[in-house]
Amino acid sequence: MEKYIFDKDNGLWYELQGDYYYPCLTVPAEEEKSIGIWGQRHLRFIKTERKALYTELLTSGKLNTYLANINEQAKEQMLLLTEQMAEREGVTEQLKAQDQMLWVQRMNNIRDRAIEIVNHELIYA
Questions:
Q1: With contact defined as beta carbons under 8 Å apart, do 2 and 17 qualify?
Q2: Do residues 21 and 69 both lie within one domain?
Q3: DSSP annotation string for 61-123
Q4: CA-closest candidate to residue 43, choices 22, 20, 66, 15
Q5: What is the pLDDT of residue 105?
Q6: Number of domains in the chain
Q7: Mean pLDDT of 83-87
Q8: Which of 13, 23, 67, 69 is most buried, with most CB under 10 Å away?
Q9: DSSP per residue over 46-78, as a string?
Q10: Is the pLDDT of residue 27 over 70?
Q11: Is the distance from CB of 23 to CB of 35 less than 8 angstroms?
Q12: Which of 4-13, 80-89, 106-115 has the lowest mean pLDDT?
């Protein structure tokens, strides 16, 4: 028996292992991109809560690109929300110069609210 055979009907190669032929399946190569903290959070979420999406992305070779895209969107949204909330609430460089502790408290509060929004809209959606 031949080690490898090609099936013209489905276009797959098969490899002989023991008495059976198994398809030679590979996942397409994917460009390595940094997924960052937001991408890692979303990965953890889809692995546990959206298994079909995770499996589809993994087998199609698009998981890393998808997570890198989510990470970029989350970073941009976080920056935009933080800037908008700080402007709306009057948290400025002038306040930072006058009362640093108050500025830190308000910025931490703004950052925490922005994280909650990003988590709700992008990461755990």
A1: no
A2: no
A3: T-HHHHHHHHHHHHHHHHHHHHHHHHHHHT--HHHHHH-HHHHHHHHHHHHHHHHHHHIIIII
A4: 66
A5: 97
A6: 2
A7: 97
A8: 67
A9: HHHH-HHHHHHHHHHT-HHHHHHHHHHHHHHHH
A10: no
A11: no
A12: 4-13
